[in-house]
Design a protein that fits this description.
Shape: globular
Order of helices and strands: HHHHHH
CATH class: Mainly Alpha
Largest sheet: none
GO molecular function: phosphogluconate dehydrogenase (decarboxylating) activity
CATH superfamily: N-(1-d-carboxylethyl)-l-norvaline Dehydrogenase, domain 2
Helix content: 55-70%
Pathway: Carbohydrate degradation; pentose phosphate pathway; D-ribulose 5-phosphate from D-glucose 6-phosphate (oxidative stage): step 3/3
InterPro entries: 6-PGluconate_DH-like_C_sf, 6PGD_dom2, 6PGDH_C, Pgluconate_DH
CATH topology: N-(1-d-carboxylethyl)-l-norvaline Dehydrogenase, domain 2
Distance between the termini: 49 Å
Number of strands: 0
Keywords: Gluconate utilization, Oxidoreductase, Pentose shunt
EC number: 1.1.1.44
């Protein structure tokens, strides 16, 4: 089986393997957006993962990510945005698809091909983890970075 990464745009979003197709991932984000995860980024993510290119294939699979300006700004302002940094690193790894496909022809296949458990429970628990951990960290780190940037750019933001 060839390596098939799914890249999602929101900071800290999980990446799933072949257990979920793009439409199902969109359904999950739609479900999450009806509860405590309701946000602009969760809402647009459901549409982004479902969007098809002119040839009918998921456009998100064709996006190759490079370094993220937010992570670079965090270094410049001396603010730790670890969650965003990890997303940049994950995107960098997912951009190595050609190398992963080549390696998949040499290395033995994983014995855990698909998730076999209760997918509804998994989605619910993953949503709770996203709500209580990565969303909190992402917003806190983002506000810290914007607070420092206000000093350099003379922005009038009253965020902290």
């Amino acid at each position: 089986m060839a390596f098939q990464p799914v890249r999602l745009p929101e900071f800290g979003q999980p990446v799933w393997n072949s257990s979920f197709d793009h439409d199902k991932i969109g359904d999950v984000f739609k479900f999450w957006n009806k509860g405590e995860l309701d946000s602009f980024l969760i809402d647009i993510t459901k549409d982004i993962v479902r969007f098809k290119d002119d040839d009918g294939s998921p456009l998100v699979e064709k996006i190759k990510d490079t370094a993220n300006q937010t992570a670079i700004s965090s270094f410049n302002f001396g603010v730790s945005v670890t969650l965003i940094g990890e997303v940049v690193y994950s995107r960098t790894l997912s951009s190595l698809k050609d190398k992963c496909v080549c390696a998949s022809k040499i290395l033995p296949e994983s014995k855990n091909k698909k998730f076999e458990g209760d997918k509804d429970l998994f989605v619910k628990q993953l949503g709770q983890a996203l709500s209580y951990a990565s969303k909190l960290i992402s917003y806190a780190q983002g506000f810290m970075l914007m607070h420092e940037a206000t000093k350099d750019h003379n922005w009038d933001l009253n965020i902290i």
